[in-house]
TrEMBL record:
<dbReference type="GO" id="GO:0005886">
    <property type="term" value="C:plasma membrane"/>
</dbReference>
<dbReference type="InterPro" id="IPR001611">
    <property type="entry name" value="Leu-rich_rpt"/>
</dbReference>
<protein>
    <submittedName>
        <fullName>Uncharacterized protein</fullName>
    </submittedName>
</protein>
<feature type="compositionally biased region" description="Low complexity">
    <location>
        <begin position="317"/>
        <end position="332"/>
    </location>
</feature>
<keyword id="KW-0175">Coiled coil</keyword>
<feature type="region of interest" description="Disordered">
    <location>
        <begin position="303"/>
        <end position="332"/>
    </location>
</feature>
<dbReference type="Pfam" id="PF13516">
    <property type="entry name" value="LRR_6"/>
</dbReference>
<dbReference type="GO" id="GO:0030027">
    <property type="term" value="C:lamellipodium"/>
</dbReference>
<dbReference type="GO" id="GO:0034315">
    <property type="term" value="P:regulation of Arp2/3 complex-mediated actin nucleation"/>
</dbReference>
<dbReference type="InterPro" id="IPR032675">
    <property type="entry name" value="LRR_dom_sf"/>
</dbReference>
<dbReference type="InterPro" id="IPR051279">
    <property type="entry name" value="PP1-Reg/Actin-Interact_Protein"/>
</dbReference>
<feature type="coiled-coil region">
    <location>
        <begin position="334"/>
        <end position="389"/>
    </location>
</feature>
<dbReference type="GO" id="GO:0016477">
    <property type="term" value="P:cell migration"/>
</dbReference>
Length: 838
């Protein structure tokens, strides 16, 4: 080991030496070198450590050689650090940086270095101070997740972990594998915005990756930066990307080991495989590996082997987690056991290389190979004992979203092993919707949930929409709910479970017992598209009559038998716990007769039991809408959706009056949705509802899209917007507006103070074009008439002036002629006189 000397007095020569070595000129940066260490070996300086006010530098001399430096950087995964001529490297010291020390050097050096770094950072606020953890060259158990690699004797290694990506890319001088480009700037901007807004979320959907290489590098840098940051809680990566095949491996191998988030959102990635690997790594990194020491001497006979034993013990303390991390990135199939064995083999080979530097490597004898195998078996046995005694660290996973991925059943089986390692009452929601799971996959999922009922009993949200149940899957589903009986009642007090089985092909008759379990605590049930026969309808009605929690029911597109609709509605009304129901019954065939029956049941006794109703696409016609509206006049209903029920426009008068009357008499309504589509719309008669809206002060949201009410309805809507004081959301697109109607709306909108969600409509292009053409033609004619009038006036003035001028000219000409005549006469007279005189 090299001799360590502290330079207590820093001279200008020392500063100059530092500056020249680091290729930095003497300036403010090196004007105050607070402290310098030099490590001497064989009277030659091997390493110089210099600390200024804001930086820490480590300088390796040529004696170590180019190869040693490269190996050091590779082992520490610091390839990006800026190197000077492959002879020395420097690490920048700044706030929000974690420093870890692995020191084969004397403890006094470590203590002095720590105290000096602490002294240097004394001026920073507490939240900006670096994290320094060292206990006489050993880590605590809690801080042992960082790589501790000893590349040799004689110098100090400082490992820097950056706490956020913004500092990682801006504060450290990098010799990067990729130059900074627009994509990298986008990622850094997202991280910076998240930090500035104090929102611990990153949405990578906003980033467009240009190539697979760019994708890998940016995610590598991102995970390297974030894995030490306990502040971020949620990573959103839902957009389908051609490079997502690498995403799970990068995430599991490079990130999860250091920072397991509580939310996994990998929806809409289009992945088929990779989830099993993700689950395997999540389990591996949760296992707590304690000190595994071999104390018996039976495997170690020589002093050299005893030294190896000591080295193995130290490396088992420290290096195993790091070896696991490195191998996770390089080889997905490695497990903990293989990694430990590889570590020992590597250390054994290094010791042999040091001892026999210039000699050819000899093959191990059979006896040595057998002993090595015995060592490996012993290590494996002790690992198993250690894990069985102390167990793994619990995985904290609350929300799991794998929706819209084509997940393979066997791959799902591998991932579901993580449920064994979840904390008690941990998992809150699972979303496997649109994963194309068939009966086998669903069975695997629920069998795993059953085996780990303590961790999964608190599931609040189960979404298995658009998957295909079979009989075995249904049985596993029911069995999980039966197992909930064993759960302590106090754990289920606050459970309100949402169950989404939309288009899942599940038999409703089979799951009726599940709905009747009191411990099921299902409050929201979506079985739309599943199909309900008469027996299922009768059983479901009985469940609803006696339930104490199920109050949100979606029976859309179930082909519900009409003769059982009255029984279902009566069961809601007769509920023994007087629950208020939100009932969704879209895309069935209720018709006018069913609407009339609805009115009779609801009006009888005037008991309030509906707070929301969706009854779209039920062929109600205007008369059916009238029956529904009359039935709801005295209900405490807050939301009504009654779209696409009127077959043709000339049938809309009754529907328009009915909706207006309901809005006038029911003071609880907050939302009305009455959309139209194709030939199913109310038409201009929707104006009756809009006229009533002028005087209403309770409605907050209105959607009348697609009703083709034209400019006359638009005029009524403009008046409503001008005078209504409660409406906050309005949708009125596809209503055959022209420019006149839109201008009318715009002129009245600025008088409204309540609307903040207003979707501007699409104008009728053809009509608008005709209107604009007509306006242009009218303006053109007006201009032409004006121009013609002005031209005529101007021409008249010119003519008058010309005539006047001509008249003056004529007067002048006549006078001239008379004068000439007079002169000629006078001349003739003179000539005559002369002739006479002769």
């Amino acid at each position: 080991m090299g001799k360590t000397e502290e330079l207590s007095t820093v001279t200008n020569q020392d500063r100059k030496w530092c500056s020249e070595t680091l290729h930095i000129g003497l300036g403010d940066e090196f004007s105050e070198i607070l402290w310098v260490y030099q490590i001497v070996k064989k009277k030659k300086i091997q390493v110089l450590i210099a600390i200024t006010k804001n930086r820490l530098f480590i300088i390796q001399k040529k004696a170590f050689g180019k190869k040693a430096i490269k190996e050091t950087l590779h082992l520490l995964d610091l390839k990006e650090l800026y190197c000077h001529d492959d002879q020395e490297f420097k690490l920048i010291f700044h706030p929000n940086t974690t420093y870890r020390f692995s020191t084969p050097i004397t403890p006094s050096l470590t203590k002095n270095l720590m105290s000096r770094v602490t002294e240097v950072t004394s001026g920073f606020p507490p939240q900006m101070l670096p994290n320094i953890n060292m206990d006489n060259g050993r880590y605590d158990e809690l801080m042992s997740d960082m790589p501790i690699i000893d590349p040799g004797e004689g110098f100090l290694i400082v490992y820097i972990a950056i706490r956020d990506y913004y500092n990682y890319t801006n504060k450290i001088e990098l010799q990067s594998e990729m130059s900074m480009n627009e994509t990298d700037l986008q990622v850094r901007k997202l991280i910076k915005q998240s930090i500035e807004r104090n929102e611990p979320k990153i949405d990578l959907d906003q980033v467009e990756f240009q190539s697979e290489k760019e994708y890998k590098l940016i995610l590598k840098h991102l995970f390297t930066a974030l894995r030490f940051n306990t502040w971020f809680e949620n990573l959103k990566f839902t957009k389908t990307n051609e490079y997502v095949s690498n995403f799970l491996m990068l995430f599991a191998g490079s990130f999860w080991y250091y920072h397991p988030w509580v939310c996994l959102n990998f929806s809409n990635l289009g992945l088929t495989r990779g989830f099993s690997y993700l689950g395997e790594q999540m389990i591996n990194v949760s296992k707590r590996i304690k000190e595994i020491g071999l104390t018996d001497d039976e495997f170690y006979e020589t002093n050299e082997k005893r030294k190896n034993k000591k080295g193995n013990k130290e490396n088992n303390d420290n290096n195993n987690p790091n070896k696991e991390y490195n191998s996770l990135n390089n080889n997905p199939n490695n497990n903990i056991h293989k990694q430990l064995l590889e570590t020992l083999n590597l250390q054994y080979a290094e010791q042999k290389n040091k001892k026999k530097k210039n000699k050819k490597k000899k093959k191990l004898s059979k006896k040595a190979i057998e002993k090595q195998k015995k060592i490996q078996k012993e290590i494996e046995r002790r690992i198993e004992e250690e894990l069985s005694e102390k167990g793994p660290i619990e995985i904290i996973l609350e929300d799991l979203n794998f929706s819209k991925n084509n997940i393979d059943s066997e791959d799902l089986r591998g991932f579901c092993k993580i449920f064994k390692y979840l904390g008690t009452n941990c998992l809150n929601s699972i979303d496997f919707s649109e994963c194309k799971l068939k009966g086998k996959g669903i069975t695997i999922l629920f069998e795993s949930l059953i085996k780990n009922i303590e961790s999964t009993c608190t599931l609040n949200d189960i979404n298995l929409a658009e998957n295909k149940f079979n009989l075995s899957a249904t049985k596993a589903f029911i069995k999980w709910f039966e197992k909930l009986k064993c759960t302590p009642k106090e754990d289920l007090i606050d459970i309100n479970r949402d169950l989404n089985l939309r288009n899942s092909n599940i038999s409703i008759l089979h799951i009726i017992p599940v709905l009747s379990f009191k411990h099921s605590r299902i409050t929201t049930l979506d079985i739309s598209g599943c199909g309900i026969d008469e027996a299922s309808a009768t059983g479901l009605s009985n469940v609803i009559k006696n339930t104490d929690c199920l109050h949100d029911l979606n029976l859309s597109a179930t082909n519900f038998p009409n003769d059982k609709f009255g029984l279902l509605l009566s069961s809601m009304k007769a509920n023994i716990n007087d629950l208020q129901f939100f009932f969704r019954f879209n895309d069935n065939y209720l018709g006018v007769e069913g609407a009339e029956e609805f009115k009779k049941i609801v009006i009888k006794d005037q008991k309030c039991f509906l707070i929301g109703l969706e009854i779209n696409q039920n062929w109600l016609k205007s008369q059916g809408i009238k029956y529904i509206c009359e039935a709801l006049e005295k209900q405490k209903i807050k939301s009504l959706s009654i779209s696409e029920n009127v077959e043709r426009a000339n049938d809309g008068e009754i529907a328009g009056f009915a909706l207006a009357t309901l809005l006038k008499r029911n003071k609880h309504l907050e939302t009305i949705i009455c959309r139209g589509e194709d030939n199913k719309y109310i038409g201009a008669e929707i104006r009756h509802l809009l006229i009533e809206l002028i005087y209403n002060s309770t409605l907050k949201s209105l959607d009348i899209t697609g009703n083709k009410m034209g400019n006359s309805g638009c005029n009524c809507l403009a008046n409503a917007i001008r005078n209504n004081i409660s409406l906050t959301s309005l949708k009125f697109d596809e209503n055959d507006f022209t420019l006149h109607g839109f201008v009318d709306l715009a002129e009245n909108y600025h008088w409204n103070d309540s609307l903040f969600d207003l979707q501007f409509p699409q104008l009728d292009y053809l009509n608008t074009k005709k209107i604009i053409s007509q306006l242009i033609f009218e303006k053109k004619m007006e201009l032409e008439n004006l121009l013609e009038k002005n031209v005529k006036s101007l021409k008249s003035n010119i003519d008058k002036n010309h005539e006047k001028k001509n008249k003056n000219f004529k007067i002048i000409d006549q006078n001239g002629i008379n004068k000439l005549k007079k002169e000629k006469m006078e001349k003739n007279l003179m000539n005559t006189k002369k002739k006479i005189e002769k």
